[in-house]
Amino acid sequence: KNQVEQSPQSLIILEGKNCTLQCNYTVSPFSNLRWYKQDTGRGPVSLTIMTFSENTKSNGRYTATLDADTKQSSLHITASQLSDSASYICVVSAGGNKLTFGGGTRVLVKP
Amino acid sequence: DAGVIQSPRHEVTEMGQEVTLRCKPISGHNSLFWYRQTMMRGLELLIYFNNNVPIDDSGMPEDRFSAKMPNASFSTLKIQPSEPRDSAVYFCASSLGLAGDVETQYFGPGTRLLVL
Q: B93 at the A interface (CB within 8 A)?
């Protein structure tokens, strides 16, 4: 069964600090992996999309990594800001029509 | 472009009533997706259309749910009859590719549905 597990479920960090979110998946075959940011009360917004051949992709202060061998991905937030407070969702595609969603990690950045 | 437009933004209805959610995708996008999000189940893909044709409706929970896309610029998700367990935020998204393609999906603001 295709599954995407995210950890931690939630975390609190101080403004200016770094943090790393984890995504482990068992989706097969693998096509691509996406990270979304979802602010409270709004729709998700795409941060990165990575294919099998990509192991790092950045979007500003967000850096995603992918290890297709161990089926793990991480999202690193550098120098966190209050606006980074949101839920972060990992989505893995098996190609075609199949998407498997993680449960998300809720991040709270405190001043 | 104004992005994906959804209406209404909020809907409160009583159990047994019909609910219709509406979506206008980004112009030029050929795929449209309907999602449901709850605290318990997270984000779930209900159905998606490509070139106005339903491609995968395996996520539609039961026959009370139906979706249509009569043209490239409009889609509806209907729940009839509604039940309290249908309470959730319903998102519409659109993209240039299929669900699993390496194409960004753009989400609308969502419709927050409460069934009493």
A: yes
